[in-house]
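Lab meeting, action items carried over

1. Structure of the two-component assembly. Owner: GW. Status: complete.
Input record:
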Amino acid sequence: MQTITPTLPLAELKPGEHARLIDISGGKGIACRLSSLGFTPGVDIEMTQNYGYGPLVVTVRGTRIALGRREARNTMVQRDLE
Amino acid sequence: MDCHTSTAGKTAVPVTEKTVTIALAGQPNMGKSTLFNLLTGLNQHVGNWPGKTIEHREGYFEHNAIHYCLVDLPGTYSLSANSPEEVIAREYILRERPDMVVAVVSAANLERSLYLVSELICLPAPLVVALNMMDVAEQEGLHLEADVLQAALGVPVIPMTATRAAGIRELLQEVERGLKGERHLVPHLPEIRCDHREALEEVVGYIEGHVPPPYPTDWAAMKLLEGDAEMTQRIRAGLPADCWEAAHGVLEKHEDAYLAIASGRYDWIGRMIRAAVTHPRIGQISLTDRLDRWATHPILGLFILAGILGLVFWLTFTLGAPMQEWLVASIVAPLGAAAAGLLAGAPAWVNGMVVDGIIGGVGSVLTFLPIMAIFFASFGLLEDVGYMARAAYVMDNIMHLMGLHGKSFLPLFLGFGCNVPSVMGTRVIESAPARLLTILVAPLVPCTARMAVVAFMAPAFFGAQATLVSWGLILLSMIVLVGLGTLLNRVIFKGERSAFIMEMPLYHLPNARTIGILVWQRSLSFVKKAGTIILAMSVGIWVLSVLPGGSLETSILARLGQIVAPVGKWMGMDWRLTVALLTSFLAKENSIATLGVLFGGGENVGLAQTLADAYSPAAALSFLTVSLLFIPCAATVAVIRQETGSWRWTLVNIALLLVISVAIGAAVYALASGIGL
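Predicted assembly:
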């Protein structure tokens, strides 16, 4: 059975949750920078630290990357359901 | 910059025809600097890339009778035009054609670090991959087979651990083999994802034959598809209008091609890694995770940062201040006396200039070297273990008040040591407006020299409350800094914001060599400044302080002080304190030396007490406040000009700080006298 999983901003993931990257908005410059850091469509993102405000830390391709909340709001992901 | 031409006149190293140029490329946090320092030691030349405020380091060494020139390319994640550093790195490889490019990658973080290799491998320069941090990979339980990776990449791969100097000989052997043409590997290039392959071929077709040298056509086409603004401009300039129209049409249709390209590279990396890495299940919580639970906590993290800052200050002043006093008492003072004796026969002005101007000015500035060296070492240590990224992270919220983000905190922190490297350190900030704003507020960070003035005067005036007053003054500076930043952001920068994207490196053991060289270079550049700009200013101020009559009381400087004395009065300061403040422009701690001269004390131990008898605590508080907030010292002004590239912004900065310091000084004086101090 396949459930349709809605897309949500990366900023809404809780620590420990995994999701797949769908899209980065907020300007091509940022999307381009993030893509070279490994944020390509479909990549697995793990939320490492998120206190609900301020910056957060995600793990992508084995690297911890800090993102501003605004950048994390502009990044759309799809939660992994298992 | 080319080794062969640029170094000929500048360095003592003989550059012969046999000199081999190697470019060292790598992403940040891969141990590139460690490898660079290991190979070249102190035989380095640090400057700027031509026309840019980006650090350019090259170093020299000899191995097996071959002279090497090692060029340290800026640490970048890719070779797109995301930042000037990336453009510099690729332009260097394409234009200067180094004999070899060594790409430093981390075995512990292979996936991300091979991204740069996926770009380097497409450039027409022989490539060797230095697979660094094998020890960290081992600790994390990763098992890598370098020869399998080598076969997969089609590029020599040398496993190594630069922090332990392991694998260096093998790396140099491989470089030599490559130079002799004994390597016959065929690199396996990454490909664009198949849905954009046709588009790439079309673009190649349109631009073929019109690509200016030295850019390879395929590479240029790829950069066009990536939407690389810099390359687009270059190609367009050389392209007939109809070809551009056609190519542009394709590019517009494939606006998101950069994602396909990045994905293609990561697919390629995935294939390389699947071959070479046996990835065990990672079950254990790593040291980094455990430390970060505290260090990056939004509230706890701030307390930890404050604690570390306090510790650094305490260490700096507990160790550094006695060393400084020792330098003053046993080197500068005897040197002055000896010079005075030697020059007894010389004209009085020569004597005065050497003893009071040069030794008094430059000498007293140089005595701050131990304090700064300790501060730089602490900073280097925190940076090297990976803590500074955490500091930037927890400061992000506060920096946002000014429209800045966490990264701006790093240069500001450095400013507690000295504002000069602080202003230069703003180079880590990607966005130009954010960088300018950081530079404008950077002089408000109280440097060690200003703290020394506070430490000198506060005990005499405030007794047991001296520490409290000192911390209060630092806090006031910080509040003014945030206030000014917030205001400037609203008014000049219209609330512009830049993206916060920063790697959080794994914590690791510090490398003494890396920190040592950092301290050495920062200290060296400080000494160089002392020998040039501070020397010139010292003599200049000294001239103003003796002309025309020969004594300070009747000098131009004193007259200047009397002219601005009415302004000083608002702050409860007489002309002597005002002149002291003016001379602090040369070097912040000069105000003490000036007061020493004005009160006839010279090296008198009781100067602080003399001052306490002459002025009210309110006046002292106001004087210290203004000292902390006053216009930046001459050396800082010089680097602000250098880093902003604009006299206008430099003057704006000075004017702003002048107004702020006078206004707040007056307010503090009114308030303090109001409560009866």
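2. GW to write a short summary for the group page. Key points so far: The first helix of chain A runs from residue 28 to 36. Chain A has one domain: 7-79.
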